[in-house]
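Hi support team,

I submitted a single chain yesterday and got back a structure, but I'm not sure I'm reading the token output correctly. Could someone confirm the output below corresponds to the sequence I sent? I've pasted both exactly as they appear in my results page.

Thanks,
R.
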Amino acid sequence: MTFLQIASLLIVLAGLFGAINYLFLKLPSAIGILVVSLLASIAVMGVDLLAPGLGMADQVRATVTGIDFSDALLEGCWALVVCRCAACENLGSAPAMAGGDLDGHDRGCVIDHHYRRGL
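Hi R., thanks for writing in. Yes, this is the structure output for that exact sequence:
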């Protein structure tokens, strides 16, 4: 799986699990998503236990082991978490360049810009 596919899958699953939490469990967001994720994992293991011919556990194991987590975290998630938009490449318009204060998003964009350029 490519990084974009992994990121898309994680965002969709987080949204789905968040909706399930909001509609049914009504727990705080982080805890609810964690609980729903745990229940989904247990459901996959249960389906594999009841119908081993489907090979669901093998498929999930192959997908998870096929992901290079260090590469996905260091190269991809850094950009998704720190710099939330594609506009971060335009640092000339950042408030710091004009003498203004940086908000959290602009600081993240500047950090991401320097990280990617090796400065």
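A quick pointer for reading it: The radius of gyration is 19 Å. Let us know if anything else looks off.

Best,
Support desk
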